[in-house]
Design goal:
Blueprint: H1 3-32, H2 40-58, H3 60-73, H4 79-82, H5 85-91, H6 95-122, H7 131-141, H8 144-152, H9 158-172, H10 180-196, H11 201-223, H12 227-261, H13 264-267, H14 277-288, H15 290-305, H16 310-328, H17 342-357, H18 363-385, H19 389-392, H20 413-426, E1 433-437, H21 445-454, H22 459-462, H23 472-475, E2 484-491, H24 503-514, E3 522-531, E4 535-542, H25 548-561, H26 566-569
Length: 574
Amino acid sequence: MGNNEGRATRGLMVFYCAAFVFVNAFVYNFISRERYIYFWDYANYWEKYQQLGDVMLHSPGQAFAAVWQSLRHEDYNLLPVLFLMPFRILFGDSRLAYILAIANVYVFPSAILCSVLVARVLSPGGRKGFLYPAMGLLAFLLLPQVWVPVLFGYPDIAGVVVILLILSQLAAVPFETMRLGALLRLGLLLCILVLLRRWYAYWAVSFFIALAAERSAALYRRQGFDVRKYIPAARKGILVGAVSLALFFLLAGPQAVTMIRTNYADIYSAYKTSRSLGEVARTLYDYAGALLSVSLVLGMTAGMIREHTRPLFIFLAVQSVTVILLFARVQDFNTHHFYLLIIPMALSVAMLLSAVLERIKYIPGRILVLAGFSMVMTVQFVAVFVPDVAARYHAAGVLMSTFRHYPMVRNDLAEMHRLLDTVRKGSDEGEEGIYVVASSTILSDDILKNACRAFQYPARFCGRISHASHVDKRDGFPEEFLSARYVLVAEPVQYHLAPESQRVVGILADEVAGGKGIGASFDRLPDAFTLDNNVHVHIYRKREPFAGGALRDLERRFLEYYPDRKDIFAIRPR
């Protein structure tokens, strides 16, 4: 190894160490500032991390059996948290430990893999050095879109590690020349990707479409249109698809059947507000920001123009468009779904920066450009995560993402504590349920249950908080409501989606709070509670059984809106 190459390697190692420190310091600083009751997706995998860790500590065999069963039967299986278990065993199950586990097990390795991929693809002639890996690392770690889902508590970035492994293999050799072992690895990686989170299936499907388009274009440029020349690549593509599909059915057969039979576009229709591809594009543009969006287009174009980067960037361009078209048919992109597009973004930013740097012959000029790039990316990064920074850089706001995610803080924790105290003191020690008619970031059944646990109330009491229905077509009528002794209703009615998609909240709140229909069976208790955003909560205690006519009228109200959904809105008195 020459002196220059040795210095570059040592410099890169120092850079990686600095990045490692940044990853952990950022997470520690951000999460330490939060004062919150985590709920729904924010708490879902954290709870799994805690529960699987408890089992792993006492019986590893039972833990792996639980992972296996979840793979086969659950939408939210335990695979993403399985790889976090060493961190769980060493550092505990706190919120901070959980987010640090995601950052160290998934984010930092993704950044290293992105760095290596950029160096392999963009460096002319595969030259080794410091510049290209550094660009890849910065382009990845300074994307706010990488971090937002992590800080919310989603482990979905695990799929990005797998995607980078797949792209690294594609970048190593032309697909049609891959040996059997490499093809089997691709099939296995695609299977693992979909196992990690169901919606990564969009990436897996678009993989084959993009691969077919890119390889067809490459073979046509080299050999013209000769069907016989395309057959070897087609056979290998079919083999990869067959392997990934066979493995998926072998490992998650019941879940695979459920995925095939389920009309996700229908049950998640409440989560789709975009009415056209133009609106979808606008949402993605706002989330990325003008600077990143322009960099994506320019970097992708530069990558397709250059001969040595053309195959990968054609693949990424076709796949990105395909992913957007397929996903937008079902629902809108949420923050974690952006991982489907995060690698094209990072590689395009690095490609654009590379194209600029290669036109500058003098090292001081390159350093200046790289420093300017780092500063711009840092300003955008900080503006997303640090309060008031965006206001200070108002002139540059038009270039930045419109999304903001600051440390989450609730100012009503004492009032929530008082609410739980009141419900507990007023209830007996029976098994009657507690039902929450609210579905927002201020109040829901999950918020109340997790507050109950956080305040360390007895598990028996917390367990009486019933699971509520939130989304009409997905959840149907909540049978748990019928057996609840206490019902909590918020004023104004709390929704997190359009009210017409959450009538299981609105209709129940209307009848209970209004004292009509089923509401005639309840008495309102005198205490009232004021939560954040001036949301008032009242407690209703069931005085007598529901009248049969009131239940039939309630069922009729729901069936007026969903006449074809009697299977989930039929009310069976308890």
